[in-house]
Amino acid sequence: MLLDRLLERTFSVSGLSGTLTVVTADGHRFRAGDGDGPAVTVRFLDWAAERDLLLDPELKFGELFTDGRLLVEAGSLPELMTVLLARNHGAPPLRRIRVLTALRRLARRIIGRNTLSRSRRNVERHYELDTHLYDLFLDANWVYSCAYYAAPGMSLEEAQAAKMRHIAAKLLAGPGHRVLDIGCGWGALGLYLADVAGCATVRGITLSAEQHRVAQARAAERGLSSRVRFALEDYRLVRGCFDRIVSVGMFEHVGPADYDTFFRIARDRLTDDGVMLLHTIGRTGEPAPTNPWITRYIFPGGHLPTLSEMMPAIERSGLILADIEVLQLHYAETLRDWRARFLAHRDEAAALYDERFCRMWDWYLASAEAAFRHEDAVVFQIQLVRRKDVVPFTRDYVAEAEARLRQAEDDVRAPTERLLASA
Asked: Does the predicted model carry a pTM greater than 0.85?
């Protein structure tokens, strides 16, 4: 009964938006919330689950759901996240959470850098999963990063194409340019920069053997192997100079201890009249350790940077900040679409792995969406140069370049469409 009372007190003072009904392991039932929002019911299956949640809610909420010891009996996971988080943005955490955050910050300092070997192991934990899994929920090009919903009603495919177009426009990418893509994924952006933007060469680097294999095969299929090369390589080992450098969804894996190294290398690899575009998840609040459940089960070694963590390293590197765009809710929409597709193919995911894995990924996608929708997670697009006169005076060039790239996309698709029509 003591646990029941502690649970009731914890949820009652947390400022819930909607109605949360909690059923404890011994059948005690209580409600909390303002009633102005979704109605959700959760049930604990054992008393130890209640204890664990009270001791470390940031870690244990996801663990208990994944292990099937906490059930969502009414409502959905996104609705549960809304009830818990919608009214708490900017509110100070509970004292015990502040203590745990301080301990995790200390642990991060003790663990130290994401060394070359540790970085490779971290990548293997997530990106070396069965490739069929990603085919279940990503767009056709397998773009595994925030989409850009430039217009209402865009599909996931349209929004991911708009993201690559937006990035290529900010890079001022075009014929003759040599491009370095740091963290190239399965190769979609590198192929876009060569095929659509017309860049002379693209070198994409990744630490995932599976991503490297797929990217190489896609370059060959599109007849671009002579211009687009992918390599299993750490950014710290890259040599040569490039007119354009782009990094999408990779900086989150670098870690604060190596920010100086990352930006110094970027400057050394960038030509004097070059442009770099860094697209990374970040936070608008104070620097803090990333959610412990995410770093334990989904992205080991990950850290979401604030501008205050990145800017000193950028300034020390000698790179010049040319532009910053903050994408507020685009990743929330992306994750919503990914989760809908994942759930539509949940049986196939369970056949690849098991039910526990499906619960884990359901929590991952739903909690990540909530972080972008209700907490301080955003996406930063940071444009960097070595010379001030490289980027035009106004942002008009972005829309103009996007229009040209959209026409180029049509020109690239047209031969294939004509071939299919005649088949």
From this structure: yes
